[in-house]
Write a structure and sequence with these properties.
With about 140 residues, the protein is of the alpha/beta class. It has a single domain, classed as Nucleotidyltransferase, domain 5 (2-Layer Sandwich), CATH 3.30.420. The chain is about 50% helix and about 25% strand. β2 and β3 (about 25-30) form a beta hairpin. The protein is globular, with a radius of gyration of 14 Å.
Length: about 140
């Protein structure tokens, strides 16, 4: 059973997935929200039909001082939709502060073309979210 990582953004949503043994995280795709969660939920239905997922991990965009941001409130509403729709799955959150910064550092290191960065930054962020959860699980 795999885990799915989600970087829930205003315009785009990054999706990452673990391998079958839950050891590594790989980027899966970036979904254009088009102003609606329905697009995301429809695509998640397809992903869940393809892979055996037991846990969905969503990045929580807290402020740098750890307080709840406006974006975090919107993310909590999305998580509520996930919990209602996928109530048989475990839905977890992890602090996603600086994952986008790390994603940009990775892309710069790999010399990713600046025109392609926007299309993959959310997927890479979702990988970092999933890796954070996997590392937390290993420690805890």
């Amino acid at each position: 059973m795999r885990m799915l990582g989600i970087d829930y953004g205003e315009a785009r949503v990054g999706i990452a997935i673990t391998d079958a043994l839950n050891i590594t995280a790989q980027g899966l795709e970036t979904i254009q929200r088009n102003g609606s969660d329905k697009v995301i939920l429809r695509r998640l239905d397809e992903i869940l039909a393809t892979y055996e997922i037991e846990t969905i991990v969503v990045g929580m965009p807290l402020n740098m001082n750890g307080t709840i941001s406006e974006r975090a409130k919107v993310t909590e509403e999305f998580i509520h939709k996930l919990k209602c729709k996928y109530n048989q799955l475990k839905i977890e959150t992890v602090d996603e502060r600086l994952t986008t910064v790390e994603a940009h550092k990775t892309m710069n290191f790999l010399e990713v073309n600046k025109n392609k960065k926007r299309d993959i930054v959310d997927t890479i962020s979702a990988m970092y979210i999933l890796e954070t959860y996997l590392n937390k699980k290993d420690v805890g």
